[in-house]
Amino acid sequence: MYTVDLHNHTKFSYDGSNTPEEIIENAIRHGVDVIGITDHQFSIGENLPIYYEYIQHCKIKYAVKVLCGLEIGTRPTPPESLPRATENFDYVLFECLDDTRAIDFYEFLEWRKLFKCKAGLAHTDIFKLGERYGLDIIKILRDNDIFWELNTSGNYIYYYDFLTNEKKQQIIKESGIPVSVGSDTHYIAEYRKKQIRRANELLQKLNIPLP
Question: Are 127 and 150 in contact (CB under 8 A)?
Fold first, then answer.
């Protein structure tokens, strides 16, 4: 089985406890094939170039595939400088877009167009988001090249719902939108390896593409 974990925090985040090396080595121990580092944009601030170069060094250091990502807050609207600052990143994750305090969805779609790298929605219930705006959210994500994340941290109900809701699974499968898996790790002692494995197994069983 091919295992990805595209949502991890390090000491570059205000709530991260481990170095990027410790996060990557922990992933290797648990059989992860692709590990993504996605520290908080508002924690890194003006140190984005340092963060980017650090993760590039880790890519060279380890045999496992390491990706440089960034988690971008949407409560409130993020800084206008981010699209250019992240143009060489592997991807960005926009968090909690289904939160009532988040940036307006229509405004978000216009903002997303400014980013040259891949973009995904982190810990967001896209079905709930679609109901709120009365939109075919799946089609919009596909048309705007946005992938969806299954967040296995245990803090989001939509993840558990998707594991058992065959109707929603079929909708995502037929849509063709990519889906990533993210542990949202902040402290490696709490790494949820079983949940990461289960989510990856489900996506591959359904032939749902990874980003």
Answer: no
